[in-house]
Amino acid sequence: MKRRHLSLLVALALTALATSCQQKTIAAKPDPLSRAYDVESDWNDPQKQIPLNYQQAQGKRVFYTYCVWCHADSSPAGPSNRSNLTPTPPLANDGATFNPLSDEFVRNTITLGGSAMGKSAMMPPWGRTLKPDEVQAVIVFMRAIAQPSYQPPARPGPQYSVK
Question: What is the pLDDT of residues 141-163, one digit of tens each?
Fold first, then answer.
């Protein structure tokens, strides 16, 4: 009798398994925000999308958390505070301003603050807030969205701008 119950249980289990395998799987709906950091709209031409790699996307995330308030004309919450600052901070995509600067100079400006690098004292030091890899990711993001496009130097030059 026990053998018969066991056989019946095994048969029921196999039937249930076979039935569940035959059910159609429902495709998950894509999350519209899952790719939000994969591209950045060109700030000068919203129809143009700039594809971002992983490090650039991480820089975008950090930028829109900490930097957007002063280095963009608008933020996710509305207008930025940029126009209220003197001197007015350059836009993050301002290639004419940032392209001539070395990564090390930009990194030190972000980490140590503007006054430490001979720039505006309005630029706070972010070195205790951001990790070094986050600072580097912001620089890589800024290079990706720069207008005119950033062209890395063919050979290493002076570490600091003479301007």
Answer: 999 999 999 998 877 666 555 55
* CATH class of this structure's domain 39-145: mainly alpha
Could you tell me if residue 141 is left (phi over 0), alpha (psi between -120 and 50 degrees) or otherwise beta?
Answer: alpha
Tell me which residue of 51, 29, 49 sits closest to 38, measured CA to CA.
Answer: 51
**Residue whose tokens read 């509305």:** 78
As a whole number of angstroms, the distance between CA 138 and CA 144 comes to 10
Cα–Cα distance list, 111 to 67, 116, 135 (Å): 13, 9, 8
Burial 76-87 (b: 16+ CB within 10 A, else e): eeeebebeeeee
